[in-house]
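Student: Please help interpret what follows.
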Amino acid sequence: MSNKVFNAIIVLILIAAAAFMLIKVFPKDSDEKSVKNKETSEVLHSVEEVSESLNVAFDSGEDGKIKLNISNEISDDELKKVNMSINSMKGNIISFTTYESNNDDLNNSFRAVEFEYEKADTMYVYESIVKGKAIPADKNDAIKLRDKCQKFLEQYIKNYMTDYDKELVIHDYIINNCVYSYSDDNDNSEYSAYGALVNGKAVCSGYAAAANLLLMCSGVESKIVTGVATHIKNGHSESENHAWNQVKIGGEWYHLDVTWDDPVGDKNTLIHEYFNLNDNIIGEDHEWDKGNASKCSSMKNNYYMKNGAYIYDKASLENYIRVNLAAGTDNNIECALKGLSVSDDDLKFVYDYSGVYSVSYSLSGNEDYNILSVYINE
């Protein structure tokens, strides 16, 4: 065999080997799109994991679609509730479509679900009010929401107000102008600030989005927290997905749950039980990913602490109630008790005041933070 033929064979062998290596290292479909798909190819096993992936997609600030592999253990009904857990300040889910299923391995079965999402009206509004950006003409809901927010800011937010004052006005305004309810139009607006501020109907994520939007437009640093909250219903403990806020007041972070301060049942007076709590107290009935949230360790700007209504003994309790009765400004007196029990006998003195014909009260919380609401003539 000649050297030329031998060399040619060697060259062909090297080319073939190189081609094989290229095939192994760079598969045929390894374009940019495939890399993106690969980043979302992990099978998600909870609504929280789905929400986290969607929140990352929202960070683009644009409308779009994302396909996720979702465990068949998560039902379509559960996916419909993903709006309870996403950051509704940034984006909204328009629809989702199931493309395929994989049931070969029942221990690891999943389906591909494509979510279509859009930039949230709240972000358009924030950028319009704070940054002066124009809202696209076809974003009618965003324009309505901006007009509502501007009217609120002009009427309620003043230059001399502290961040705490702004937060309190926003908290009370939302509660007084919104009811916990689903939309009459079946349009998912209850999950958004639009539902809370324009329609006056929202669920927890709508309350949190509305508070977040108004706080940020007022110059108060705020964020939305999603997690799980547990409450007692019909004598049983029930947990459900929930959303609330963290607010930075005086350089420190606090939890603010506007939804759970909105009264339900026979009593229609708002309370401030969840106004600026630390991690320990709200942790009694709320759970969240602390790695993605700010640490809240202070109670300095808690509503009751701030108003001298965090009470440790019965003499102070009676004095506090007497001061409020003398002021005669409210038929509902609220305070927080620490290590203190209350009975009907403890409140008999209230009848000494002119015009008082009925007294009732309620207690909620725990030994270190027990909220007493005293209702006069209700």
Observations:
- The first strand starts at residue 43 and ends at 44.
- The first helix runs from residue 3 to 25.
